[in-house]
Design a protein that fits this description.
Helix content: 10-25%
CATH topology of the largest domain: Rossmann fold
Number of domains: 2
Number of strands: 16
Strand order of the largest sheet: 4-3-7-1-2-6-5
Order of helices and strands: EEEEEEHEEHEHEEHEHEEEHE
CATH superfamily of the largest domain: Nucleotide-binding domain of ferredoxin-NADP reductase (FNR) module
Strand content: 25-35%
Length: 266
């Protein structure tokens, strides 16, 4: 169920020079959100930019056993996010959501590899928590985190709290291995093949992950990041090309943002 509501900012914390986490008190309907879904945000105080911006739901906020709202992880990259940084406690954010579909989580525990590049880690913390809550033992879940440098390796502590194994890579070698995040993934797949790979990150990374999954015949689900104008399928702007089927194109906002890797052209 999609709703529009005014969300009060609870916190807006810097976790690096360009990255922030904003907590928002949302309507109880947002408690039904699943990992992979997203929200469209707007600042009431300004019509610039005019269009809403999409953000993955980073995690639900639960305090004393009660649902309070959602947290969003974002990177300051443009006009909207520069203004979002200034939203302090008590500020109001206009939120539409939860939107899109979510990652598939099996009823029984599976060996899962979670691959995230940079800000692509945004939906993965929610997913990792849900895997644990569903009874998946920590040893079945491995996280591959990649970034340009140390400052781009986000949420490591969240995965550590869940006792998940973590592989770190950076382009400049300031943390972990100096290589692409898909390099240790490829080695791990050869050593111990997972039942499923979950991925979110830049297109080049996703293409490589899809190739690894296809070569080893592993199910792979990807969160596709793209520009969205509406988030509800009205503008028809966020197309993704399908490999087969009656529809040549589907829309990331309503048919995704989660797609099976072997179903789309990356």
């Amino acid at each position: 169920m999609m709703i529009q509501s005014k969300a009060q900012v609870l916190w807006n914390k810097a976790i690096g020079s360009l990255y922030y986490k904003i907590g928002m008190a949302c309507d109880a309907e947002f408690s039904k959100a699943v990992p992979g879904q997203f929200v469209m945000l707007s600042l009431d105080s300004s019509l610039e930019p005019l269009l809403r911006r999409p953000f993955s739901i980073h995690k639900p906020i639960v305090q004393n056993g009660h649902y309070v709202g959602i947290e969003v992880l974002y990177k300051v990259v443009g006009t909207f996010t520069r203004k979002l940084v200034a939203a302090g406690p008590e500020a109001q954010i206009d939120v539409i959501g939860p939107l899109g579909n979510g990652f598939h989580i099996a009823d029984t525990p599976q060996r899962s590899y979670l691959v995230a590049g940079g800000i692509g880690v945004a939906p993965m913390v929610f997913l990792a928590q849900r895997l644990k809550d569903g009874g998946s033992p920590p040893e079945l879940n491995t996280v591959f985190l990649g970034g340009q440098s140390t400052q781009d390796l986000l949420c490591r502590e969240d995965f550590e709290k869940l006792n998940m194994r973590i592989h770190l890579t950076t382009d400049d070698g300031t943390s972990g291995d100096q290589c692409l995040v898909t390099d240790p993934l490829a080695l791990a797949v050869q050593t111990k093949c997972p039942d499923i790979i979950y991925a979110c990150g830049p297109p080049a990374m996703l293409k490589c992950v899809a190739g690894i999954a296809e070569h080893h015949q592993i199910r792979c689900q990807m969160s596709i990041e793209t520009i969205m104008a509406c988030g509800i399928g009205a503008c028809l702007g966020c197309n993704v090309e399908m490999r087969q089927g009656p529809q040549k194109y589907q829309h990331v906002c309503v048919d995704g943002p989660i797609f099976e890797a072997d179903a789309i052209v990356i």
